[in-house]
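hey can u run this one w/ protoporphyrin IX containing FE bound, need the C-alpha cells asap thx
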Amino acid sequence: MAITELVKNVLQHATRANNLKLLLTLSAFFIYKYRSHAIGTRRRSDLKEPKGAYPLLGHMPLLAMIPGTKLYDFFEKNYRELGPVWSISLPVIGRMIQGDSPEMVEHVLKSNFWAYEKGPLLKGALGDLFGSGIFASDGANWKFQRRQASHIFNVKAFREYTSDVFVIEAQKVLEYLGKAADAGTEIDFHQLMLHFTLDSFGAVSFGESFGCLENIEGKVDFAVSFDDLTATCSDRLMDPAWKIREALTSVGAKAKYDKALIRKHSLEIIQRRRSEGFKTVSTKKDLLQLFMEATDDEGEPLSDEYLVDIILNFTIAGRDTTAQALSWMFYLINRDGTDKSIMKTLIQEVDDVLGDDLPSYDTHKQQKYAEACFNEALRIFPSVPRNLKICVQDDILPDGTKIYAGEWFTWSSYVMGRSEAIWGPDVLEYKPSRWIDTEKPSQGKFSSFHAGPRVCLGMNFAILEALTVIGMILQKFELTLVDSAKLPPYGVSVTMPMLEGLPMRVTRRQAKEGGGAVAV
Ligand code: HEM
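ok here u go:
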C-alpha cells in the first residue's frame, strides 16, 4: 500500500523539470559511487590497479584501446610495474583480480578448487562452441565427464590407436613437405600444423579424418566453420556487449550457421555409426566408440547431442593448442639468437631413437630432448596464455588478498613463463636444457597445462602427437624461417594462434651414412 502511495506521489510530481532533476541526481550519485571503478563492481582501494579507470566504465576503455597483438604485453607490463597481484574492473563482466604467482595459481586451481568455477558468463560466451561439454561445465556434469574421459584416456588400446593415427596423418604432412621442397615453395607451417591436428582429431574422435591435409590450399567446410566459430567465441570474451553487437551485425547469423554446420556434421557421423555399427579389424576403438559404449550414472547410454558436445570439446581442446605449440617451437628453435646447437641435438636424438623407422607408442618415451623443446616452447608461448575463474565463496589468496564471491581470479601463464622471479635471469632464452635432468616444475610454476583436478586431460596425448610429427619431419627435412628476425604476431583468442601464420622454407635432408635422412 505504502509503495503504491509513493509511486502515485512521484507520478503526480513527475513534471519534465522534476524528471530531469531526478535523472541528474541519480547520475551524480552513480558517478560518485563508481567514480573509480566499473558499475556493478565493489570498490577495492586495497588492490593495485593500472592507471586509466573511468567512472562507471572502469578499465573497459583502456582495454579497448590495446591492440589485440599487444594484449599479453599489457599484462606483462602491469606485472612488472604493479607486482603479481593487481586488478581491473569491467562493466557486466565484473572485477578481475590478476594473481601471477605459482602459489596463487595452485591455491585457486588446487587447494581451494571448490571455491572457483567457470561460471555462467563463460558458459554464455563459449556455449555455442562447448555446449554442455567438459570445458564449460562445473559441478556434477564436469565430474561425470572427467571421470569418463580420464578412464578412456588411460585405456592402452586407445593410446596405441592414437599413436597409429598420428603416424598416418604425419605421413601426409611429409608428402606435402616433399612437394614443397622439390618445388622450392614456401609453406605456412602454422596452417600445416592446424590441418595436421584437426585431421588427427577427426580420425581419433570419429574414425575419419576431415581431409584437410589432402586439400591444404583449399577449404574444408567443417574446418572453416570450426575456425570461424572459435574466433567469434573468443571475441565475446573481450566484449561485454557481444550479444548486442552480434544481433546488429552479420556475426550472429554466421555464428548460428557455423554452429549448425559443425553439429550437423558430427551428428551425421554418430547416426551413421549407430546404424552401421563400429567396423574395426582390431581391438582399437576411437573416442566416439568408447563414449558410445559408456553409460551415465543411471546406467543409460549417452544421448547423441551429448556425444556431439563431448567430442567437439575434445577437438577444441586438442586441436589448436597442440598445433600452436608446435608452431611456436619451430619458430623459437629457428629464430635469430637461439643457440644453433639446439636443432643439432634435436636431430641427433631423432636419428638415434628412430633411425629410418616410424615412431611408435614406445619410441616417444625416448625422445626426451624433443619433449624438452616442446615444453620450453609452451613456457614462452603457452597455448592458453590467459585464464580466469569466478570465485563462488569468499576466499583469501596466499598473500592475504581478499577475493569476494562474484569476483574473478585471473592469471596468465604467458606472464609467469616470462618472469625472472619464477624462472631465473635467463627466462627469455629458449633453453630446452632447463628441462633435462632437473626436477619437474610444479603445476603452479609451469601452468601451461593448467593445474589441480582440472589439469589438461590430453597432456600425454598432445606430447605423443607432437613428438610423432616432430620426429617424422626431422627424419627427412630441414626447415628454416623465411624471416628469422621477425617475431610472429599473436592473435587474441582463448588460445595463442600466430596471426599471420609461420612462413618457412623446406629442404630435404641429405642422406647420411648409417640412417637418418631418407627420401619420401
Ligand atoms: C599443447 C597442447 C595442450 C595444451 C597446452 C593444453 C592446455 C590445457 C589447459 C590450459 C587446460 C585448462 C583449460 C581451462 O579449463 O580453462 C586444458 C584442459 C583440457 N584439455 Fe588440454 N591442452 C593441450 C592439449 C590437449 C589435448 C590434445 C586434449 C585432448 C586429447 C586436451 C584435452 C583437454 C581437456 C578435456 C581439458 C578439460 C579438463 C577439465 O576441465 O577437466 N588438451 N588443457
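The mean pLDDT is 90. anyway lmk if its weird
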